[in-house]
Every structure is written in structure tokens, then in C-alpha cells.
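Protocol step 4 of 6: structure prediction from sequence.
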Amino acid sequence: MASWVYLLVYLGFQVAALLCVRSAIANGRTPQGAVGWVVFLFAAPYIAVPVFLIFGHRRYPGYISIRRALRTEIAALRDLAARHAPPREAGDPGDVGRLKAFERLAGVPFANGNALRLLLNGEAAFSEIFAAIDRAERYLLIQFYTINDDHLGRDLADRLIARARAGVHVHVLYDAIGSEVTRRYLARLREAGVQIRDFHAIRRSRGRLQINFRNHRKIVVVDGAVAFTGGLNVGNEYVGRRPALSPWRDTMVRVEGPSVAQLQFVFAEDWLWSSGEKLALDWEPRPARGTATALVLPPGPADPQETGSLYFVNAIGAAQERIWIASAYFVPDTDVLSALKVAVLRGVDVRLLIPDRRDHWLVWLAAYGFVDEVRHAGVGVWRYTEGFMHQKVLLIDDDIASVGSINLDNRSCRLNFEVTLIAADRPFAAEVAQMLEQDFTRAEPVRATLSHRREKAVQLAAPLARLLAPLL
């Protein structure tokens, strides 16, 4: 009897491996990646099949189709952008060209008339966010990858409950993998009239074993007039209440103007996907006292192209003098690696700012597997040593800057739903440059190669972690 059971299990895994092989060949991003999966699946099907079921999916089918239901909103966004079209300098086709690529990736043009303000670290950012929430009169849109039932999470809940009881329509999205919310926490919000949902609640929910396709976006929109985005989530660690990672270094941006509507659209699309409900929102933001030109880029696994990777490749290629990238994780794909090296060859000042402390062991180790390669090519690499750095910020020359949720790793670029605000604005870029210059003073340049590190375990483990780069 036992032999028959073993035979059935064996045959089952062989069939499953063949089906996974077919999927890997059909959907593999690169021939090397497809071959890697094929070898793994045939060599060790008992291990490889479960791993493939967790990590092997690259596309999120069906999501893109919901945009048909938002045609009116898309038309409103395009009309708004057309009425706020930035002036294009005659005789400067290069500048127009590098902005055009961002526009095509985002699907919307840059719009002028935005007021942007950097918010550094959790205390300052949440002070602004909570103040804006407290002033909400009509609706609130709240989206975070992480919402925890802790001190900060309960503070947010108290404010949302107060606004809901005051008649404000409150909609909240979170990601079940990234969040630690209790049933009591959710019930308390829902009893007060807050509409709170897991992004994956009704669409292809695979539970905690399926860690691909996370919604990593951070968006707050108040009455369609003010918005926030960046790297912060809702948890005690983000305001420095986790000693091992404190002080926590992060960046958000406060937005007024046409880009608020673009951030609002990203939320509306995610809400429609997660609930089937189309929200009635204001698509005409109040005029802002600002002149910044900006757009919102929301890459995701439903995109026909790998938007996140192309975002970095275009940004690096657009740089003429400098490209500075601050990212919590550094696990680039081959396209981004090549773009970084070519930028150095063109004489561009290429700098990477990554954390010295770790919150995810494998990702931290994998970064060491790439640092020697980019340093050898001439890329400057700094490790932030004053606490944990979680920001996702990019600076191109003196006139383009981006603040959002996109890390320079494969998961952000290929598998997560992300968002970033790109500003083509010299004053804002100058603020970002000043901020990053201060961050570099709190960081140490990487000078030693991996082989010269004192920790032998890191020397051995980093190259192995790099092998897992497509999964991290």
C-alpha cells in the first residue's frame, strides 16, 4: 500500500513539475531564468514545485481590464493634465525626450502647478498626515503596505473613526502580508463606518504562501485636494519605536495640485480591483500655490512592460551630470546594472545610498553580492549607518527628483504594486539634493571588497543570496 502511495505522490510531483516547466518557459523574463527554473524543477521537484508556486508567477492577470470601468476618470485626468501642461523649452529636445519616456511609462503627461513639500522621517510626516486627516470634510483615501495594530496604527484608527463619525467617507487599503492587524482592530474601524479592505480580499487571494504581487504603495488623499506618498508605513518602527532599527530614516512628499488627482486615480483603481466598487471622487483639485511640474508613476505586475525596471533605466540614462539613488534594498536586474555602468562610462556621478543595518537578511546579503561589481565599474556606494534607511528617492542632475515606494530590487521592479512621484522642478530637486547630501554625511563609503570583510559568513552567503536575486 505504501509503495502505491509513494508512486502516486511521485507521479503527481512529476506532472506538477512539467506544468510548472511549461509556465516557466512561456513566462520566463530571461532565457537564463527560464533555464534555471527548468533545471531546478526537474532536479528537485519535491522542493521546486512548492517554491515555484510561491515565487514563480510574474504577472497579475485581470487587473488591467478594470481600467475600462474608469474611462471617465482617465479622461478627466488627461483633460486636467492638458490644462496644466508645462511649458516646453524650444530648442531643448533632449529634456523633452527624457520626460516623454516617463510620461509614456505612466500613461499620463506631466502637469504643472503642483506644490510639493518634502517630509523627513516618521514624526514630521505623520504629524502632517494626521493633521490633514483631521481636517477632512468629504472623503479620505488611505493606502499602506503595512498597517499594524500598535501605537501608531491605533492612533491612525482613532482619527479615521472620528472622521467617519463626522460623516466623512473613509476608505482604507492594506496588504495582508505586510500588515499585522487583528480582527478587533478591523471590527472597531468597520463598526464606525470605515471601509477597510485587504487589497487581495476578493481577487486571486492565495494567502500568506503567495508572497508575490504585494501592494507596496503608500498613498493618502484628503478630499481630493491634498495627498501624500513616499516610503513610510503605519507601524511603530516607522516612528523610531523599534530600537534595533532606530532612528528610522524615511521620506514622504506632500502634494497639492494636479498630481493629487493622479495619486487618487491609483487608489481608485486599486479599490475597484479589491472591492468591485467604483468610488465617486472629486477629479478637479483646488489650485495650488505651486509651480512644480510632476507626474505619478504607478508600476505593477499587471503592466504590459516591466515599468519599474524601465523607470530606473530611463532615469539613469537621462542623467547627464549625476544620478543619486537612495534605496532600502539593492538587488538590481541586468538591465539596471548595465545602465549604471554605462552612466559611469559617460562621466555621470553615480551614487547609491543603501542601509548598513538589515531588516531582511537575504536581501541585505544579496546587495553585498552586487556592490563589488558596481564599485568596480565606478559607482559610488554608501552605507547609511545612523539607524535604518528605508527611503526610496532618486535625483537626476539638478532638475528631476522622485520620491515614492519603489526600491531598486527585482521585487519592486517586477512583482509589487508601487508608486512614485516624479518632479521635473529645480527647486524641489535642490531640496532633494540637500537632503541626500545630509544623508551621505551619515553614511560610510564602501571601500573594502566582499573578500576583505571580517565576517566570513557574509563572504560565503552573499554570492549564494545573489543567486536568489530574481526572487528577492
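Step 5 (inspection) to follow. The domain at 307-471 is CATH 3.30.870.10 (Endonuclease; Chain A).
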